[in-house]
Amino acid sequence: MESILFLIFAAFALGCGLMTVANPFSRSPVASALFLVLTMVWLAGLFVLLHAYFIAAVQILVYAGAVMVLFLFVIMLLDLREEELRTWNRFGVAAGVFSVVALLGVTALTILRSVPAAGAAPQLEGSTHALGAMLFRQYLLPFEGVSIVLLVAMIGVILLSKRESK
Amino acid sequence: MIVERKPLNLAERFYLPALGNGFRVTWKHFRKTLFHGRTAADETSGGYYPEVPWKVEPGYRGAPYLVRDQSGDTKCVSCQLCEFVCPPKAIRITPPGPGGPPADRANAEKMPREFEINMLRCIFCGLCQEVCPEEAIFLQKDYSLTGLTREEMVYNKERLLALGGHHTGIQKWKQKADEARAQESFPVPG
Amino acid sequence: MDWQFLAFSLVKIIAAFAVVMTMVAYSVLVERKVSAFIQDRLGPNRTQPFFAKYIPGLGPLLTRWGVFQPIADGLKAFLKEDFTPAHVRKVYFWLAPAIAMVPSLLTVAVIPFGSMMGAQKMVIADLDVGILYTFGIVSLGVYGIVLAGYAANSKYPFLGGIRSTAQMISYEISMGLSVIPIFLLVGSLNLGDVVQHQTGGWFAWHIFRQPLGFFIFLIAAFAETNRLPFDLPEADQELVGGYHTEYSSIKFALFFMAEYAAMIAVSGMMVTLFFGGWTLPFLGLDQPAATLGMGLLHILVFLGKVCCFLLLIIWVRWMLPRFRYDQLMDLGWRRFIPLALLNIVVTAGVLALLASK
Questions:
Q1: Which one of A24, C106, C217, C277 has the fewest CB atoms closer than 10 angstroms to its CB?
Q2: Per-residue 3-state assignment (H helix, E strand, C coil) for C206-234
Q3: Nearest residue in C to A65, CA atom
Q4: Which helix (H) or strand (E) holds C329?
Q5: Is the distance from CB of C217 to CB of C273 less than 8 angstroms?
């Protein structure tokens, strides 16, 4: 049952992801954004299969519910024209290929190195106590690091957007 | 002119007086209607529409009808000015034509053979009444025109005249005749 | 997967759906009646089926109360011409009403609307992350409105959609922050636990422990359901109806029903989080029911509380004029978010002090 569901969710997540970047029916950015939302929802389904209900809910709440709404907001405010086929940019292609290969490498390395979990005892299931303990004890430093990165990003955005209007 | 805005105090900035006043006003009206059964319609016109017909005030622009003069003759002389001026083209006049029947009263050359107003198109603007040189068409007080078919809503000459009634207040041709008679003994006395 | 669980869940889903849809229909009637009374009118009092006048006494009375009006309204919505303007983006135009309707109905799934009926918990999905699920689903509700605005491909719906996105995102934050103290108190995200935590006396209700959190949640709820004074996405006077300007017939009715279903869902949330859910602190009504009758009573208590909130939401519509857009943003970001954060810090501090003793 779970493996069938996994296959369904994974296939739909991949399909929607593909439709986000290469939609043969429409080149409208709104369509891409909506397929990205669907991808997020299917990913949340995958998290549910992993018994990580909290992360699944947060995935929908934050990504599908807030981030993508902002994306849509910006797309609708800025430019509603269909995206034109751009010419290939050599630097862009190189950067894209590099980042994809790097990401694949890191993922593959992690999967290869990881030890298969002994039995199905997912700690994240149920309440948020386990997750909170993990975040604020075991992984406190990375957690704080991420928050500082986010803070820097926020300040940077404010600085960039305010610079013009003196 | 610049209207000075008073600085709001803390309660006002959290909209507390607005909430209180809003509740007081809405509760007053709610209570009045629910417990005492007093509605605005009762107070202004004594009840609701189908049972108590609406009282039409003078100056209301209802459906345009043709009128007859004091001697019961059709006032319209089929000049077609109203047909021309009608913004939604609701009026259609069929004149008698060269060999048509003559007018049935003195002082007029021709009568409309047919005069139709499509009440579905009419916008009750009153331009036909304003433009009519004979004062033959008036916007009257009918506001509830109903019918089951489109054909039914095209009012023909007989119907318009029947609904329009007599218009004895302005006796245009009587005045003209009097004036003409007075002209005969020039200079005009008085 | 055992079949008993599936069968009971199905029954609960169908029952909850039927009750919610009936409440939607009749809250529209209540809205029309209350609005009419506040404006010195009588409201719908003429619709009657052909047989109503043959029932002595009761028939005319029900007619005067407008009881048959929602049925006629529903029939009208189905039978009117479903007009699709030529300039719309068809796919989104058809998708938007459905997307608007679904989240408001899904929210009901995690709300415990009663204690027990026999051995069955009266909640469709007893999730451990109930509240997060709710917020996740509620945050998806904005897509219906945004897509409607985008699909209509004309100016007023578009402006409505744009307004709606910004408003929803802003007030979602204060809404989420305002309930965090509740979960600090309860120590669980499960809504059933939240209800259990509020048993034992009036003052166990969270409204008395977290009044600030409740008021922020209440006002954010108004904003999330697009009700006056926060109905800027619709704003009949400025945007001639906003995002559903181009819709007609059953598609418009779906938006309309979605608004009322969202009102019901959000009222259910408020009752569960702040007003003790299905409990009442007397007659032993705050313990899970042992008999079927008590179970039914609990459901009625819950529905009664929800109806009170619906009446409040309807009433407030006539109390306050619509906010200006900058006032709306100002209220959301510069008043409520700091207040909600303060509320969290104070609650956490008090709890830490109590725990350290």
A1: A24
A2: HHHHCHHHHHHHHHHHHHHCCCCCCCCCC
A3: C139
A4: helix C325-330
A5: yes
Which residues of chain C make contact with B30, given a CB cutoff of 8 A?
A: 34, 37-38
Picking from C40, C315, C319, the nearest residue to B39 by CB comes out as C40
CB-CB under 8 Å, C335 with B14: yes
Chain A CB contacts of C162 below 8 Å: 73, 76-77
pLDDT at A21: 80
Query: C37 and B48 in contact by Cβ < 8 A?
Result: no
CB pair distance less than 8 Å for C41 and B22: no
pLDDT digits (tens, 9 = 90+) for B80-129: 899 999 999 999 998 888 877 777 776 677 888 889 999 999 999 989 98
According to DSSP, residue B105 is labeled S
Torsion of CA B139, B141, B142, B143, to 10 degrees: 100
Report yes or no: A1 at the C interface, CB cutoff 8 Å. yes
Identify whether C229 is preceded by a cis peptide bond (ω within 30 of 0). yes
- 3-class SS of residue C121: strand
Q: Which helix (H) or strand (E) holds C282?
A: none
Burial class (CB in 10 A: 0-12, 13-18, 19+), B111: buried
Question: In this predicted structure, what is the pLDDT of residue A82?
Answer: 55
Chain A interface, best mutation among C2, C134, C139, by max A CB count within 10 A: C139
Of B73-77, C85-89, C236-240, C333-337, where does mean pLDDT reach its minimum?
Answer: C236-240
Q: Select from C129, C138, C146 the Cβ nearest to the Cβ of A72.
A: C146
Q: Which helix (H) or strand (E) holds A152?
A: helix A140-162
Inter-chain touch C39–B29, beta carbons under 8 Å: yes
Q: What is the pTM of this model?
A: 0.79
Q: Are C306 and C267 in contact (CB under 8 A)?
A: yes
Mean pLDDT for the stretch of residues C255-271: 88
Chain C touches chain B, with at least 3 Cβ pairs below 8 Å, answer yes
Alpha carbon separation from A47 to C125, C170, C339 (Å, rounded): 17, 27, 33
Question: What is the pLDDT, as a whole number, of residue A102?
Answer: 93
The amino acid present at C208, given as its one-letter code, is F
Structural domain boundaries in chain B: 11-38, 64-172
pLDDT at position C321, please? 83
User: Does the B64-172 domain belong in CATH 3.30.70.3270?
Assistant: yes
Q: What gap in Å lies between CA C20 and CA A129, rounded to an integer?
A: 34
For B149-171, write each residue's pLDDT tens digit: 999 899 988 888 888 887 766 66
Say if the Cβ atoms of A69 and C139 lie within 8 Å: yes
Between C3 and C200, the higher pLDDT residue? C3
- Judged by 3 or more CB pairs under 8 A, whether A touches B is no
Facing A73 at nearest CB: one of C1, C136, C162: C162
As beta bridge partners, residue C117 has: C120
Per-residue pLDDT of chain A (166 residues; tens, 9 = 90+): 778 888 888 888 888 888 888 777 777 788 888 888 888 888 888 888 877 778 888 888 888 888 888 888 887 777 656 555 566 678 888 888 999 999 999 999 888 887 766 555 555 555 567 777 878 888 889 889 999 999 999 998 888 887 665 5
CA distance A16 to A33: 10
> Alpha-carbon distance B92 to B78, whole Å?
10
Report whether C95 contacts C110 (CB < 8 A): no
